[in-house]
Amino acid sequence: MTATATARKMNYDIADLKLADAGRDRILWADTQMPVLNIIRERFRKEQPFKGMRISCCLHITTETANLLRTIKAGGAEVLACASNPLSTQDDTAAALVKHFGISTHCRRGEDRTTYYKHLNAALDFHPQVTMDDGADLVSLLHTKRASQLKEIRCSMEETTTGVIRLKAMAADGALKLPVVAVNDADCKHLFDNRYGTGQSTIDGILRATNILLAGRKVVVGGYGWCGRGFAAKARGMGAIVIVCEIDPVRAIEASLDGFEVMTMAKAAKVGDVFCTLTGNTSVLAAEHFKSMKDGAILCNSGHFNVEIDIPALEKQARKLDRNVRPGVDAYRMKDGRSIYLLGEGRLVNLTMAEGHPAAVMDMSFAVQALCTAWGAKQKNLECSVHAVPKEIDAEVALLKLASLGITIDKLTAEQTHYLSSWQEGT
Ligand code: ADE
Hints:
The longest helix is centred in the middle third of the chain and has 24 residues, at about 185-210. α9 (about 185-210) crosses α10 (about 225-235) and α16 (about 360-380) runs antiparallel to α17 (about 390-405). This protein has about 425 residues and is an alpha/beta fold. The chain is built from 18 helices and 15 strands. The protein has two domains: about 5-190 and about 360-405, Adenosylhomocysteinase-like (Rossmann fold), CATH 3.40.50.1480; about 200-350, Rossmann fold, CATH 3.40.50.720. Strands 9-8-7-10-11-14-13-12 form an eight-stranded mixed β-sheet, with helices on both faces. Strands 3-2-1-4-5-6-15 form a seven-stranded parallel β-sheet, with helices on both faces. Helix content is about 45%, strand content about 15%. The structure holds adenine. The site of adenine has 10 residues, from α4. Adenine binds near residues 59, 60 and 64.
C-alpha cells in the first residue's frame, strides 16, 4: 500500500497532508542528532516491548517528538499523537507522521481551545493502556471527564516540571488515580533539556521573532530554576546584561554568585529591555510591572503555560492591540504612548517562535522517556503515585550518550571503591 493510501485509512486531523515530504526530511535530519534514541529504537524493534498495546502521546509535535513516536511504534505499539500546546505544532511534522510513519495524529498549529480538547479526547477515544503527557493535560482529562477509563491505564509518563508539580499536588490530595513516572526528574532529562535545551531554544525564539541585538540589552529573567539558569547563561553569552528575579532565597544567592544582578521584578520592570518568564507560576509579569516598563519593552514566556504574563491585565492597560507587527509579535499600544511587545501570545517562545530544543538534547530526554515507557508498560500493579525514574535508566542513557560523543571516563579503582565504603579511615 502506498503512503497516501495508508494515510487515507488512518484516523487523523492535521492541517495539510501535502506538507508530509518536507516534514519527513526534517524528521530524518533531527534523527541524525539522536544516536541514543536510534540505539533504543533498534533494540525495541527486536524486543517488541509494546506488542499489542495502544499508546497515546500528548506532546509538542516536533521533529524530535516524531523520532520518539517512531521508536515507540518500532517497539510494537499502535501510537496516537496529539499536541500538548495549541501553538507548538509543526504542521509538516504532523503530516509526515500520518503519511510516512503510520501514526494517527490529531493537531493543527494555532488550533482553538475547542479543537485542542477535541484532539485530546481523540487520544482517549483510542483507549490507550499507556499515556504520555507534557503538562499533564491527558491525565487531567482522564480524571475530570473520562474517569471510567482510568482503570484501563497501566501507567502514564510526564515529561515536564509543570506537569510533575501538578501531579504531585494531585497525589498529595489523594486525587491521583493512576501511576505516573516523573520523566522530567531524571538527571538525564532536567539537567540537560531544561538547562541547555531551554537556554538555547529560548534565545532562538526571541531572535527569530524579533531579530534584535542582544548585546548590551538588559535581559530580565523571571525564575532561576534549571530553565532560568540555562537562559540567563546563554543571554550573557550573547553579551546581554542579565538581571534575575527570584522568590527563593537560595536560588537568589546562587544567581548573585553566578554573577547576575538580582532584584525584585518591580525594580527590574523599570530598566529591562527584554523580559522572559521561566517559573511555572502565574502572573510573574503583572499589571503593576506593565505600568513602569520602558517604551519598546519585549515580553515573552518560556514556562509551560501561558499564565506567567498576565495578558488580560496587559490588554486592559492598552489602548489598542496591533497583532503581528512581525509574525508572532503583538504590539500593545499603551494609553501614554508607549508600546509593549508580546511574543508568541505569551506561550512557550522557544516552541512557538522557534523549533524547541535541539535534537541532540531531546535525544537524552526522549531516550529516558522511551525506556521509562517500556518499564511502565511491563508493570502490572504499580501504586497510584508519582514514581521516580529507575536509576538504571538514567545511568544507561548517560553512558550511551557519552559513547555517542566518543567520550570515555575513568572507573573507580578497587582501592577507591573500598575507601568510599569505609568509615574507619580519617585524618
Ligand atoms: N520541548 C522542548 N523542546 C522540544 C522539542 N524539540 N520537541 C518536543 N518537546 C520539546
